[in-house]
Write a structure and sequence with these properties.
heterodimer, A: 373 residues, 10 strands, 36% helix, 19% strand, B: 775 residues, 7-stranded mixed beta sheet, 25 strands, 43% helix, 13% strand, globular
């Protein structure tokens, strides 16, 4: 059986919800534009694509009606291409990649677009009609607020506010440096004349963050500055068999080495990456020390720091161009962004193994290990 | 020349200019705001842009909602003056320097379309000087429109035209500021300080002089010269702190420079060393380090201090003298006759001020009505000077003036034993300078209950409400209780009114002329019933209110509510239960029950859900409308304008807004009459609500607020009761909840909370302190 490879990665510019440049853009339009960009830049033959797998955390409203298929039509792609919308909250589009890889491994297709989108300006987090199960909501933390889980981890791992803020400032500075070097140019597909991110605040200082109000708990440590911002954005990755890529002259960024899903207690969902990463490492026959590049989704500083501590990842390997605290976290789009980014970084940095992993609301972790092409 | 004003240009983006531009935008009219190019920086329009940004953060807000700011186009007078050609009215509100204004007018003359009205907001420079050197056409189009600060909230505008002004142009601008900007135009003559500031400056000077000369403390001076005289409770010293001590010498100079040497103001104008010292040290009032009063925050606690007029030292503000009986409530004759310092000081302020007011008619304005309107609308006095004189009695005032060696003005002599106002044949009349009485004329489209009351009796009335015939087959429901609070009597009167209106009238408006439409139910009565555990009485009040409001809603005639000022709690709910609303632009509406630990009980809950479910721009499904209503009610949100009330869903698409307070009844009546033909009462709404699952979602939100420290423990209890009502109780999405079932849920939730001691503590605290208890 042929390997499954990542043969292209793009994303839209990321902008803060409500006040950003994408607030008035429909998610289906944004996703279609991004996918169109992926096809143009990779040069993949559209007719060969089996399916568009679209991750989306709140697939309703403008993100409803099976947005994956609608995106195919909006992007003017051949009618032969299918569309499936996948929801694993923040892990949605990483799951889209996993699904595509599985299909390819099964021989159920050779080329897939695994994408993700979230217009958080237009479909609120929790959706328009949050209707929790009354009993479950009383007896478990199934519906716990994400901020509360960040507070829980900060307490459990004794991560104080200053440490969280230092982490956030770091992320902002890395993103700022990357922007200054124009390092996002290759990955961003402009939407109209919007061609850069609106999310990063590279000039943020620890002092400025120290002045912010607590966002979730009046006795806590987490602020808006140490949480990823509500973001509008889309991402897309071309997933295909190594044979297909070779036959069609596609540029391979990385091959998928292993993948994993894990579950954990909902009230500390942020620790999800630890177990998922361990499982993926196990399957790859690697140890954490073998990993050169890590894309760890920064849902919150506290959550990221807890995972880094548990997994024992050296700081210099993490989120080289900044993470979600700076760049933003459009829920459904993040998974494909960090897998695509990890794959691209392997080439840029000339490294062997990369890990992309993230936590998922409700208590899950997801991880993907990549190997240089 | 355009007949209507479709676009306005305001030049000068200071407090006044920017505020005027904001009010034009509030009226929905595009406005160009220009200022000079700043000396530094690349942005040539930074001053005007900065003014708009600043206004978006100012409180009280110059804009009625943030969207209005988008109607303000900013620019600078060097690059953008040409755009004046697109405007139908140009308002100049730049620095009070004649040469600079004249330069600007010369430039304006080149770019504006002939016929475009041009007006100055000057408060000190005579019109003749302003237009000197200008073309005949410019003089024709020119007038003075003197706004008061802040332009959104002060209702007075003084209109001054010159001998060359075109009457049509003046009429066009006057009509615009009246109907569109909601101001009350008072025609003033081209004399120094016009009306309000001339009297106001004299009054402030008299009050400060007398306090210093007579050894009256600032606290006592304001206690005597404030509320008992029907003047805002800040009194004079508090007012000067508010407008800025540094403005005083400037106002003084502009009047002493322009008034004739024998004007009585020249005799009392003097510079006070204390005032000069305060200004030079930065004690310029509230905008500075403090003024006659200051808040001392040393030691962590805010302490109000007042200055000792003799020593110039601040000390803990003393409890002022207390004035008892009718003298405290507007009986000015009594007040000035109180033996000792209180009466003496009251007279020392009032006597000369009233005499001066009588002296400036007709020089400053032709009638006593103009003077009274100016002081009431420009300085927020409850009574104008001539209404005050009538309180004292003109003859008694003359006697006292003579005793005090104050010159008696001709007008006072002429009125003799009579009064300046009288009612003749049901019409209010005023005493003219010709020695005759004339009807007080109202502008076309102005209808006041106050006037109707002069020549008619109510159709029915009781202790808390009355029903009036306001003409053309329209009846008007007026609340008459203390602060227009709502009680069982109001509900009884509504029930009695419905068959009468059905039989003899075409429509009803709910309207009154209190400063507030209604701040809600009578809490005093409610807590009394709660304290004696008269639960059946409390429940009866709720049910009677529901019945009355729903009877209004489903009555066979249209009902239009016309709120102005506060419309809170039950006052909001009668508005929500009306077929339509004609709201004054300055309406502050909200369901604030949770603040006192209860929930809306007169249909407010289901009315809000219905409004949000019918909002085509709001997402569908069982939760969005419920969530929105929950957010608005649980946080006791009060809209800060009618425009904001629309954003919150208190007003619907077909509801209308009137900018001018005096036109509200007329507009409401017209609105109601327009609905008469083919009128059918609304159909009873049915709701599909989420039930328990919705409550689980709302609970998550409340818990999060609690964690963030934004909700108190009892807030959580109240929110849970509110959630039960709004989610339809034990319903399921597949079932229908009727309006009657919603009302039952309201009663049940209300009663559970009424019995809760923590809610009772909130009600009591509100009654005692006027502030919500955060238990």
């Amino acid at each position: 059986m042929s390997d499954v490879v990542i043969a292209g990665y793009v994303r839209s510019p990321f902008h803060p919800a409500y006040r950003g440049a994408l607030a008035k853009v429909r998610p289906d339009d944004l996703a279609a534009n991004t996918i169109r960009g992926l096809i143009d830049r990779t040069g993949v033959k559209a007719d060969d694509i089996e399916d568009v797998v679209m991750g989306c955390a709140f697939p309703e409203g403008e993100q409803g009606f099976n947005i994956a298929r609608l995106t195919v039509l909006l992007a003017g792609l051949p009618q032969s291409i299918g569309g499936i919308t996948m929801n694993r909250f923040c892990g949605s589009s990483m799951s889209a990649i996993h699904y595509a890889a599985g299909q390819i491994a099964m021989g159920a297709g050779e080329v897939f677009i695994a994408a993700g989108v979230e217009a958080m300006s237009r479909v609120p987090m929790t959706g328009f009609n949050p209707m929790p199960h009354p009993e479950l909501s009383k007896t478990s933390a199934a519906y716990v607020g994400m901020g509360d889980t960040a507070e829980n981890l900060a307490k459990k791992y004794e991560i104080d506010r200053a440490a969280q803020e230092e982490f956030a400032v770091n992320s902002q500075q890395k993103a700022g440096a990357a922007m200054a070097k124009n390092a996002f140019k290759d990955e961003i597909v402009p939407y109209g004349d919007i061609d850069t991110d609106g999310t990063p605040r590279p000039d943020t200082t620890a002092e400025a963050l120290a002045g912010l109000k607590l966002a979730f708990d009046e006795n806590g440590t987490v602020t808006a500055g140490t949480a990823s911002p509500l973001t509008d954005g889309a991402s897309a990755v071309l997933v295909c068999s190594a044979d297909y890529a070779a036959k069609n002259g596609l540029t391979v960024l990385a091959k998928i080495k292993s993948m994993a899903i894990s579950g954990c207690a909902p009230e500390i969902m942020g620790i999800g990456p630890v177990e998922a990463t361990k499982k993926a490492l196990d399957r790859a026959g690697l140890s954490i020390d073998d990993i050169d590049i890590v894309e760890l989704n920064e849902a919150f500083s506290s959550q990221s720091l807890a995972c880094i501590a548990d997994l024992g990842i050296p700081e210099e390997k993490i989120n080289l161009d900044g993470g979600a605290i700076a760049i933003g976290h459009p829920l459904g789009a993040t998974g494909a962004r960090i897998v695509g980014k990890a794959a691209a970084l392997l080439g840029r940095e000339g490294k062997k193994y990369a890990l992309a992993t993230q936590c998922i609301g409700g208590g899950q972790g997801i991880a993907t290990i990549l190997e240089a092409a | 020349m355009s007949d209507t004003i479709n676009k306005v240009c305001v030049i000068g983006a200071g407090t006044m200019g920017a505020g005027i531009a904001a009010q034009v935008a509030n009226a929905g009219i595009p406005v160009l705001l220009l200022d000079i190019v700043p000396r530094e920086g690349d942005n040539r329009s930074a001053i005007a842009e900065g003014a708009v940004k600043k206004m978006l953060k100012t409180s009280p807000a110059p804009f009625m909602n943030k969207r209005a700011a988008k109607l303000v186009e900013t620019g600078n007078i060097e690059d953008d003056l040409g755009k004046v050609a697109e405007c139908d009215w140009v308002v100049e509100a730049i620095i009070e320097k004649l040469d600079i204004k004249q330069d600007l007018y010369a430039k304006l003359e080149e770019v504006r379309k002939p016929g475009t009205a041009v007006s100055s907001n000057t408060s000190t420079i005579p019109l003749e000087q302003l237009t000197s050197g200008r073309s005949d056409q410019f003089r024709k189009d020119f007038l003075i429109t003197h706004f008061f600060n802040p332009p959104r909230y002060m209702r007075l505008i003084e209109i001054v035209s010159g001998p060359h002004s075109d009457t049509d142009t003046v009429a066009k601008v006057t009509d615009f500021v009246d109907r569109q900007l909601g101001k009350t135009p008072v025609v003033a003559e081209d004399s120094p300080g016009f009306i309000a500031n001339r009297i106001g400056t004299f009054w402030i000077q008299a009050a400060i002089n007398s306090a210093i000369d007579m050894g009256v403390s600032v606290e006592d001076a304001d206690a005597i010269g404030g509320k008992p005289m029907g003047i805002p409770k800040t009194g004079v010293f508090g007012l000067v702190d508010l407008i800025g001590l540094d403005l005083m010498p400037y106002l003084q100079k502009s009047l002493t420079d322009t008034l004739p040497k024998d004007d009585p103001y020249q005799a009392i104008a003097r510079s006070e060393p204390l005032l000069e010292k305060l200004i030079s040290e930065g004690y310029t009032g509230r905008k500075g380090k403090g003024g006659f009063y200051r808040m001392n925050k040393d030691g962590g606690k805010k302490v109000k201090e007042a200055i000792d007029l003799k020593s110039g030292e601040y000390a803990h503000a003393a409890r002022p003298v207390s004035i008892r009986g009718s003298a405290a409530k507007g009986d000015l004759g009594k007040l000035i006759s109180i033996p000792g310092p209180i009466g003496d000081y009251a007279w020392a302020v009032l006597g000369p001020t009233l005499a001066y007011s009588a002296m400036i008619v007709p020089e400053a304005t032709k009638t006593v009505v103009g003077v009274d309107d100016a002081m009431k609308l420009g300085y927020n006095w409850k009574m104008g000077p001539f209404e005050m004189i009538d309180k004292i009695g003109a003859a008694a005032l003359v006697t006292r003036l003579e005793e005090s060696d104050i010159a008696v003005p001709e007008l006072l002599k002429a009125v003799g034993d009579g009064s300046f106002y009288r009612v003749e044949d049901g019409k209010r009349q005023y005493f003219g300078t010709d020695g005759q009485y004339h009807d007080v004329e109202r502008a076309e489209g102005v209808l006041l209950l106050e006037d109707i009351k002069l020549n008619s009796e109510p159709i029915i009335r009781n202790g808390s409400a009355a029903l009036w015939d306001v003409g053309d087959g329209v009846a008007c429901l007026e609340f008459t209780g203390k602060m227009n609070s709502l009680d069982v009597e109001v509900m009884k009167l509504i029930q009695k009114a419905i068959p009468i209106v059905s039989k003899d009238y075409k429509a009803m408006v709910v309207y009154n002329e209190g400063s507030n439409f209604s701040a809600g139910a009578n809490l005093g009565l409610a807590i009394f019933a709660m304290n004696i555990a008269a639960w059946s009485e409390v429940e009866k009040l709720i049910r009677q209110g529901q019945k009355a409001y729903k009877a209004l809603k489903y009555a066979p005639f249209p009902v239009v509510s016309a709120p102005s000022g506060l419309a809170l709690g039950g006052g909001c709910e009668i508005v929500l239960n009306s077929d339509a609303v004609q709201a004054h632009a300055e309406t502050y509406i909200g369901l604030v029950e949770t603040g006192v630990g209860i929930i809306p009980g007169w249909g407010g809950c289901s009315e809000m859900i219905e409004r949000w479910q019918n909002n085509p721009r709001h997402p569908n499904g069982p939760m969005p409308a419920v969530s929105k209503a929950f957010e608005l009610i649980s946080t006791a949100t009060v809209a800060k304008s009618a425009a904001e009330a629309r954003d919150h869903g208190f007003l619907r698409k077909h509801d209308q807004v009137t900018m001018n307070r005096d036109r509200l009844l007329h507009d409401a009546k017209e609105h109601a009459l327009s609905m008469v033909e083919g009128y059918a009462p609304p159909k009873k709404p049915e709701f599909r609500l989420p039930g328990e699952t919705g409550r689980a979602a709302l609970k998550l939100a409340v818990d999060s607020f609690r964690k963030q420290g934004m909700a108190t423990p009892h807030d959580v209890t109240v929110a849970e009761e509110l959630a039960i009502v709004l989610t339809g109780g034990n319903t399921d999405m597949t079932e229908v909840v009727t309006e009657d079932q919603m009302l039952e849920l309201e009663v049940a939730g209300f009663m559970r909370l009424a019995r809760n001691p923590k809610s009772q503590a909130r009600v009591e605290h509100m009654l005692e302190t006027g502030k919500p208890l955060r238990n």
